[in-house]
Design a protein that fits this description.
The strands form two sheets. Strands 1-2-3-6-7-8-9-10 form an eight-stranded parallel beta barrel, surrounded by seven helices. Strands 4-5 form a two-stranded antiparallel ribbon. Helices cover about 45% and strands about 15% of the residues. The longest helix has 26 residues. Helix 8 packs across helix 9. The chain has about 325 residues and is of the alpha/beta class. The model has no long low-confidence stretch (mean pLDDT about 95).
């Protein structure tokens, strides 16, 4: 049963009809490197902050929540007003080294940042990214690390949005389509029974390898059957038209919405000045509005998968505090 605190935070992170329409702009080193490639000179901290705030300012009012990093996204987003008060805030807990193969990416936390701090600053949820393969030597260590964060989130009454990404054990070869499908579904089954609150799920097939929509539908039905908690689809950097198609099918299969980043705003990276502003004001906003419509029309209310807490008259007398 979901605790009252987590239930309230999930309400704050979703639309009134129980769909997650969440903007993801928590990218850090990889996004900064990409921006540098399209700039006259490397971005300083202020320019990187301004890029993120520009995206947040245009898109956050259309979303149920924003997933942003603490330094360049959350702090200035709150103080500068880019994140409206009615919009929930999710924060990542991890920092990721994209310079190495996923098999070598350890689960490292952002220094000087914790679940308790996310709670104290008004966060509505915690996001944790973990690169995972059930047959990897570190699989148990990854599961233990997730269990520790589950416990921390339970203590602070914050929902955990877990993003497990599968990978090939062979650094020289990508995952075959059939293996990816099997791993995504097995991973969803494993972690959705581990105390997490929402699964941030990757599409269970490689769209470039498998263009058949009937195969997409079948894989999504398997994913939904395996998942014991509400789930939302991540964009994983695919082009917007592909992602929109994936979202429509995922919501029909049982997804409760999206947590979307580059599929909506990727082109802004290579644009500058008025061109970037115009893109965000028109194309990016239209994409977010379209995704919201799809999620509203076809998505599953997350409350149908997360049991509501009981609230007898004396519920508060037994509600635990931090010292409990």
């Amino acid at each position: 049963m979901t605790t009252l605190g987590k239930y309230r935070h999930l309400l704050h992170s979703s639309t009134p009809d129980g769909r997650f329409v969440i903007l993801a702009i928590d990218h850090r080193a990889n996004l900064r490197a990409l921006l540098d490639r399209h700039a006259d000179r490397p971005l300083d901290d202020g320019a990187f902050r301004d890029f993120k705030q520009q995206i947040i300012r245009h898109l956050a009012p259309l979303c149920s929540a924003v997933l942003a990093d603490p330094a360049y996204g959350i702090g200035p987003g709150i103080v500068g007003g880019a994140i409206p008060g009615q919009v929930g805030i999710l924060s990542p807990l991890e920092v990721t080294n994209y310079d190495v193969h996923p098999s070598r990416r350890e689960l490292a936390r952002i220094p000087h940042w914790s679940v308790e701090q996310i709670k104290r600053m008004g966060g509505a949820g915690v996001k944790l990214l973990v690169f995972y393969h059930p047959d990897a030597p570190d699989a148990q260590a990854k599961r233990d690390a997730v269990a520790q964060v589950v416990d921390e989130c339970a203590r602070c009454d914050l929902p955990l949005f877990l993003e497990p990404l599968v990978y090939s054990l062979d650094p020289s070869a990508p995952l075959p389509g059939a293996e990816k499908r099997e791993l995504v579904i097995e991973t969803a089954r494993t972690f959705s029974q581990a105390g997490i609150d929402v699964l941030k799920a990757e599409f269970p097939l490689d769209a470039s390898q498998e263009p058949d929509e009937s195969a997409w539908r079948a894989a999504l039905r398997e994913l939904d059957a395996a998942c014991r908690v509400p789930w939302a689809l991540l964009s994983a950097g695919v082009d917007y038209p592909v992602f929109e198609q994936q979202v429509a099918l995922a919501c029909q299969a049982g997804a409760s919405g999206v947590i979307v980043g580059r599929a909506v705003w990727a082109e802004a990276v290579r644009l500058h000045g008025d061109a970037r502003e115009e893109f965000l004001r028109t194309t990016a906003r239209a994409r977010m509005e379209s995704l919201t419509a799809i999620c509203t029309r076809s998505g599953r209310d997350w409350r149908k998968r997360a049991s509501a807490p009981e609230t007898p008259l004396d519920w508060y007398e037994r509600y635990p505090g931090f010292a409990s």
